[in-house]
Amino acid sequence: MEPILKLSNVSYSYHTPDGETKALADISFTLMPGEFTAVVGPSGCGKSTLLSLIAGLMQPEAGNMSLGGIPLTENSSKIGYMLQHDHLFEWRTVYRNVILGAEIRGKVTPQIRARAEQLLEQYGLERFARSRPSELSGGMRQRAALIRTLLLDPELLLLDEPFSALDYQTRLTVSDDIGQIIRRSGKTALLVTHDLSEAVSLSDRVIVLSKRPASIVRIVPVRFSLEKDTPLNRRNAPEFKTYFNEIWKELNHDE
């Protein structure tokens, strides 16, 4: 099986009148189809910069990136990006928020409308399709944002700390909910998070980055022997603490 995403020796620096700041140095990894991978690292190390490069919002100074064997510069439309905040517009109904991306791309076909209705029903929001975002809970808003991202059937999902704006209890339930939705959809996902518990509970692998300029310190495979492998169940499994401590030590190796 060929990787869906491949990064080879990717580097990036920010340039200002005061000089150059190296953000990423020689980043190389692959993602396989259907894999859920998390990226963790010290604050300010360049995790979100990495996602911006993959999303095509910036171009690397060195290295190569490809999606499905095609350079990302020619293939970025097949990537869905879910940000820290849901960015639902209050003047649009939940349904019209969900189809916004399709509107922007000029792809609101009868098939897209039918798929939007189907996803809203599938993920428990059909009763709120004509409601305003303010009528939804934080978790429901994140589900609506995810449906908007999934609607155009992206090959790769980029998740930039999508649960960080939620309170702790809501964050646990929403990450479990969204994590299971992504698993069932069979999508390949790359999650940036500063929460090690979140990384371990959601992912198949955890990529650990160093301080800026970020390089890959280690990639930790995550496996649980659970009859029902869900993010919440993982947090109560005996392997959870082992993985957490292992990644914690990598991040604090120089302390």
Question: Your description of this structure?
Answer:
This protein has 255 residues and is α/β, with parallel strands linked by helices. It is 35% helix and 25% strand. It has a six-stranded mixed sheet with strand order 6-7-8-3-9-10, sandwiched between helices. β4 and β5 form a beta hairpin. α5 runs parallel beside α6 and α7 crosses α9. The longest helix has 18 residues. 36% of the residues are buried.
Short description:
Pfam families: ABC_tran. With 255 residues, the protein is an alpha/beta fold.
Distance between termini? Answer: 40 Å
Mean model confidence by pLDDT: 91
- The count of helical stretches stands at 9
Q: How many β-strands, per DSSP?
A: 10
If you compute it from the alpha carbons, what radius of gyration comes out, rounded to the nearest whole angstrom? 18 Å
Q: Quick one: biggest sheet? A: 6 strands, mixed
Keywords: ATP-binding, Nucleotide-binding, Transport
InterPro entries: AAA+_ATPase, ABC_transporter-like_ATP-bd, ABC_transporter-like_CS, ABC_transporter_ATP-bind, P-loop_NTPase
Organism: Candidatus Mediterraneibacter tabaqchaliae
Domain ABC transporter: 5-236
